[in-house]
Amino acid sequence: PLCLPQSKLYRELAQLDLLANLAELDMFGFTIVPPEKVGPPELHARVKQAVVGVVERRFGPLRADGLSWQDRNQIIRMILWDDRVFEELVLNPAGLGLVQSLVGTDCILSLFDGWVKGPGEERTALHQDNWDYSRPAKPPEPNSANFNYLVTDYTADDGAITFVPGSHKLRRAPTPADVKYWADNAEVVEAPAGSMVVW
């Protein structure tokens, strides 16, 4: 029966102490998994080192003051094969389990990218990550899910990701008025390095 994978997944998420995160996904559309539920400090150190390694191999040494990325948000595409630790991260029980709760246990990986956010005022506008624009209204069941692993601390002052809690239940893309209003009113994710944000 189709319900068996989901019931088994629920028990696994309960064992990982992620039921509150499961409820937050339903209510808010996003959740923050703290570092201690993602993995040990050694994992966090390896992921950060691997990301810095990818950036420096592709773009050159990072400056200590961060100004090499002034007013830039750079998406670094297709990094999964650059370091073995990224394979561990994509199979992380907390992240993968919560993603599977949204889109099913037969989900398919679409992207695995890194993102460097430099100092300055550059922003990513409010948007939806579901790229099916063929229908103005979305089905209640999600057909995509994301997780961000935080290599550094996320704070309001340092350019954290933001969400409009509950907007996933609108089942539509944000309007221009939404984009304008929520630019400075969305909920800021403030979380320490090693956390994982799932939506």
Key structural traits:
single chain; 199 residues; alpha+beta; 3-stranded antiparallel sheet; 7 helices; 7 strands; 36% helix; 11% strand; globular
Q: Can you tell me about this structure?
A:
This protein is of the alpha+beta class and 199 residues long. The chain is built from seven helices and seven strands, in the order H-H-E-H-H-E-H-H-E-E-E-H-E-E. The protein has a three-stranded antiparallel β-sheet with strand order 1-7-4. The protein has a two-stranded antiparallel sheet with strand order 2-3. Strands 5-6 form a two-stranded antiparallel sheet. Helix 1 (3-15) runs antiparallel to helix 6.
Structural class: alpha+beta
Task: Report helical residue fraction.
Answer: 25-40%
As a percent range, the share of strand residues is 5-15%
Quickly count the helices. 7
- Classify the oligomer: single chain
Main sheet characteristics: 3 strands, antiparallel
Unreliable segments of 5+ consecutive residues: none
Task: Please give the radius of gyration in angstroms.
Answer: 17 Å
Distance between the termini: 27 Å
The largest sheet has its strands arranged as 1-7-4
- Counted beta strands: 7
Q: How does the overall form come out from the CA principal axes?
A: globular
Mean pLDDT, all residues: 89
Order of helices and strands: HHEHHEHHEEEHEE
